[in-house]
Amino acid sequence: MTSLPHSSTPPGEFFEQWLPKAFAAAPVPEAAKGVEVRLGIRLDGAGGGEWVFHMDHGKLNITPGSAEACAFTLIQTVDDWRGCLWEGRGGAFGKQAAAMFQPGTDSAGQGPGGRAMNPQAIERLGALRGVIRMVVAGGAGGDWKVDFKLGPGPVPAEPTTTVTVAHEDADAMGRGELDPMQAFMSGKIQIAGDMALMMQMQAASM
Fold this sequence. Notes:
Elements: H1 11-25, H2 30-33, E1 36-44, E2 49-56, E3 59-64, E4 72-77, H3 78-86, H4 91-99, H5 119-126, E5 130-137, E6 144-150, E7 161-166, H6 167-174, H7 180-185, E8 189-193, H8 195-205
Parallel strand pairs: 1-4, 5-7
Antiparallel strand pairs: 1-2, 2-3, 4-6, 5-6, 7-8
Helix pairs in contact: 3-4, 4-6
């Protein structure tokens, strides 16, 4: 896996210069070889912006601009994005988000559920509408969040579904010490809002 640049690297430089070069130099994951997908990224805060990731059968092109036409868009603050990449924040959720920006992992070409994508899954995800917010509560840096917008169009003012887990439980899931289903069944993962959207996302990703 290619080493990350310095943590002070501006997001624009990271996405438009470092990441395409690092991706081109890394082995192409099997999951990415047969996939063409456009993924939106929006970072809010100082130095943030909006980008479109176009993955075309193992080749990655990143351009600044509106992500409204993308089937799914990842949305974070700049601080939370830096937190998962360089500080290990977010536990299992942070690892999944960070892996999208680390060439050489098996997560390239995967969807929001962490499964390998295919054209049919991409089409199904693009038919959904809503925002799923993952919140890892507590921790030294405070709450860590990532939003995942399903379907094209503008970003809604509020999330459709919010998934909340304590940071110690998210860390345990990240280490493989806590099974996500067991965490949900025991109430350690709490879901507010439209639970059906979570189920639809999981089904569409398969």
